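Regression test case RT-17, inverse folding.

Input:
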C-alpha cells in the first residue's frame, strides 16, 4: 500500500510512557489500530477486515505499545514453512524510532524458534517508504506481482513487489508467474 502524510494526531512526547513492547492485539485496541491504518495508507483496511482476521485460524494480530498508547501493529499469517506478513504500520508520530524494526525482529525470532524458514510480504509498487523499510530489514525484492492489489476507489489493479527474508536459500528470485501462483494460493488475505 501507499503511505500517506496526514497530519499527526498525537504528540510524540505524550506517546513515550514506557519502553515499547509487543503484545497480542485485543478487542479494545481496534480504534487505535484503525487510526494508525488510516494514517498509514491511502486505501486502508476497514474495521471489518481487521475483525475478519480473528476468524482466520492461522492469522495473528499484534500491537506495539508504550503502556498507554498503541503505536503500531502487525498482522501475519502462519504457514508450515513461512510467515506471511499481511499488514504492518507505525503511527506517524513514532516513525523512525525502530518500532517497525522491533516488530520485524520479533517475526525473525519466531522463524528461528518455530522451524519456519522465511518471511514474506507484498508491498504496493508506489509505497517507497515500505520498500526502503523492508530493504533496510534485510528483505530482498524477489518478484513483481502485477494486479496483486486492487485500488478500491477506481477499481484499478495495482502492482505489488514481493519481499522475502529467509533462513535458507530462498533469496533466489521468483519468476512472475511462479510468484503469482504462490500468492494466489497463499495470500488470499491480501498483503500491503
Ligand atoms: C514502513 C513503516 C512500518 C516503518 O516503520 P518505522 O517504525 O518508521 O521503521 P523503523 O524506525 O524501524 O526503521 C528501520 C529502518 O528502516 C528504514 N526506513 C524506515 N522508514 C524509512 C523511510 N521512510 N525512508 C527511508 N528509510 C526508511 C531505515 O533504514 C530505518 O533505520 P534508520 O531510521 O536508523 O535509518 C512506517 O513508515 C509505516 O507505518 N508506513 C506506512 C505503512 C506502510 O507502508 N507499511 C509497510 C507496508 S505493509
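Golden output:
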Amino acid at each position: 500500500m501507499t503511505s500517506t502524510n496526514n497530519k499527526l494526531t498525537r504528540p510524540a512526547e505524550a506517546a513515550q510512557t514506557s519502553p515499547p513492547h509487543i503484545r497480542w492485539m485485543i478487542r479494545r485496541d481496534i480504534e487505535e489500530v484503525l487510526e494508525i491504518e488510516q494514517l498509514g495508507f491511502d486505501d486502508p483496511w476497514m474495521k471489518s477486515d481487521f475483525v475478519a482476521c480473528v476468524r482466520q485460524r492461522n492469522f495473528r494480530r499484534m500491537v506495539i505499545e508504550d503502556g498507554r498508547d498503541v503505536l503500531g501493529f502487525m498482522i501475519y499469517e502462519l504457514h508450515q514453512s513461512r510467515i506471511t506478513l499481511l499488514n504492518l504500520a507505525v503511527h506517524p508520530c513514532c516513525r523512525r524510532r525502530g518500532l517497525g524494526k522491533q516488530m520485524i525482529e520479533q517475526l525473525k525470532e519466531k522463524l528461528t524458534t518455530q522451524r519456519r524458514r522465511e518471511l514474506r510480504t507484498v508491498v504496493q509498487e508506489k509505497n517507497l517508504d515500505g520498500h526502503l523499510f523492508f530493504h533496510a530489514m534485510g528483505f530482498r525484492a524477489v518478484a513483481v506481482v502485477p494486479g496483486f492489489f486492487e485500488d478500491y476507489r477506481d477499481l484499478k489493479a495495482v502492482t505489488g513487489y514481493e519481499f522475502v527474508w529467509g533462513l535458507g536459500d530462498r533469496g533466489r528470485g521468483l519468476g512472475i508467474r511462479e510468484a503469482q501462483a504462490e500468492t494466489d494460493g497463499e495470500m488470499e488475505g491480501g498483503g500491503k
